[in-house]
Automatic annotation (TrEMBL):
Keywords: Glutamine amidotransferase, Hydrolase, Lyase, Pyridoxal phosphate
Database matches in SUPFAM superfamilies: Class I glutamine amidotransferase-like
Gene that encodes it: pdxT
Function (record text): Catalyzes the hydrolysis of glutamine to glutamate and ammonia as part of the biosynthesis of pyridoxal 5'-phosphate. The resulting ammonia molecule is channeled to the active site of PdxS.
Organism ancestry: Bacteria, Bacillati, Actinomycetota, Actinomycetes, Mycobacteriales
Signal peptide start-end: none
Protein family according to the UniProt entry: Belongs to the glutaminase PdxT/SNO family.
Organism encoding this protein: [Mycobacterium] burgundiense
Protein name, as recorded: Pyridoxal 5'-phosphate synthase subunit PdxT
Amino acid sequence: MNAPRIGVLALQGDTREHLAALREAGAEASTVRRRGELESVDALVIPGGESTAMSHLLREFELLEPLRARLADGMPAYGSCAGMILMASEILDAGAPGRAALALGAIDMTVRRNAFGRQVDSFEGELEFGGITGPMHAVFIRAPWVERVGPQVEVLARADGHVVAVRQGRTLATAFHPEMTGDRRVHRLFVDIVTGRA
Ligand code: GLN
């Protein structure tokens, strides 16, 4: 297969880092801000940022329903941090009514927003990641954690006992930010998921 075309949702958040990481992992990466751009990619990364702001902008840019439709249709997707929150089927502490983060329902899981943030805003640590050899350095910034996973969801990593990385079929989510370290193993895993190698 040729290099897969992977979009990065570019409404808000750390878009550039994901574009660079995806290219290093062998994908053809581009930004997604319009419906036509969403239709033209094989897969999508939803970056870190602020899930409430991103939800608002998804509506503003008329991307919410097209994105829900593509996810329901099985488009592979990877969400980091705010992206993980949006990919959930249920969000706890989603934010003020009317401005709350919206659950896109791509992964059968309940995510608590800013879960670690109530203890400490940001931290870094080493973790083990299912299917990837060797420790992984993980950066958490006002990160969520996963409080419930459905039967189809595979838990890939934990931090302090809390679930922080999951996969369900061709969707992947991490509470941390692999795009911020030089380690490309998570992005390579996603590229392999998109091409059907993983
Ligand atoms: N706390 C943010 C949110 O609720 C996520 C933080 C991040 O993406 N680094 O969306």
